[in-house]
Amino acid sequence: MKITPANPLQKLHVLTLFTHTCLLHHLTATTITNSPKFFNYKFKTHTTRVTTRTITAQSHTHSESQNRITETKMEENKEAIEAQSKFRSEFLQVLSSRRPPQVPLTVEIGKPVVDQWYQKNSSPSTDEEIMKSCPKKDIENFKDLLKEENLYLTIEEGDQGRLPVLILSLKESDIQKRRRPAVVFLHSTNKYKEFLRPLLEAYASRGYIAISIDSRYHGERAKDATTYRDALISAWKTGDTMPFIYDTVWDLIKLADYLTQREDIDPSRIGITGISLGGMHAWFAAAADTRYAVVSPLIGVQGFRWAIDNDKWQGRVDSIKPVFEAARDDLGKTAIDKEVVEKVWDRIAPGLASQFDSPYSIPSIAPRPLLILNGAEDPRCPLAGLEIPRSKASQAYGEFHRLDNFKFIAEPGIGHQITKFQVKESSDWFDKFLKPQLVPGL
Predict the structure, then answer these.
(1) Which domain of life is it from (predicted)?
(2) 441: left (phi over 0), alpha (psi -120 to 50) or beta
(3) pLDDT score for 66
(4) Which of 132, 213, 221, 352 is positioned for an S-S bond with 198, CB 3.0–4.6 A?
């Protein structure tokens, strides 16, 4: 079978970091399409020097002395900052390729999703009980105080350009209103945003604004149980899209555009986490966009190049095997081998097993707080494959004098599964660096 060449890079305006930071004017919501349920957000971008971010529980404004300290450290870490900027520039160039036409960011108010096909077909999972172990504030009449928002962000043309968003938070009176920290939660393969509700409720009870989305070809963005599989195979054959990791990372950049302009969210205190595929989404979104200030991927971080070179790719390949089987057949092979694996990664996620792999993307998150949680026996994220990225990350955090902001935990005896320990550790990590406060009187 002849495989068509991938689309060349397109010149698009990318709203985030290349070699600079973006500052956004306050967004003004206006009704469009003669419907009160749609809002159009207009923004302008400005460039400024890259600055390191200090996460505090107070206002994100800094004194002049703090700014001078930051500028001094920037000069000391000029080489590291330049390397990070180069990584983001190259990565964002790839993310902006193969994109359908972009449209102004609009927000549509939706309704709670109930008994959709993907919810009905979802098999019982121990993950749900594990998520329910997340630390939760005991609040009387919690359900009555819980605010739920169901939104759709339209970010580009096409059926995947409509991003479903679920947001949970505690209600506040006009007197109590203030900007709060937020955390974005990302689901695993073949799951959906509502599946993460136990985590969202737990964080909301502790004063966070908790957000989840449906990743590409999942949840409300899927037509049936094979939509994600079909998208992967199509990407291999045509090179038109990047459904594995990259396209959802683009969504998360657009999500950050929206979250940083909400009046109830502190734009300097937005965290991101996810499970398995969601952990990969969190990892790469944080590498691409510094607006994600605190990061904690669960059972997602791995070395794609290392796995190929050391014949340890089977666990990850088996998680989305149909696309590799299609590639095997198209390449005229009788079995999936390392050549097939490398060609698939290059096709559906360019650079994933080379310049954007964990040894380069993980250090680019420094000095922002990063907690990596994996199972020591995880075949999809082999522990040995993380030695180099862990070492390079430690070096990067050391250069920024922020060694306490980086932590890697490989839970003994655990394979590719989340645990109560991981849920508690990541919860503590966000509390340590984002420090939410409950509404007075609750």
Answers:
(1) Eukaryota
(2) left
(3) 57
(4) 132
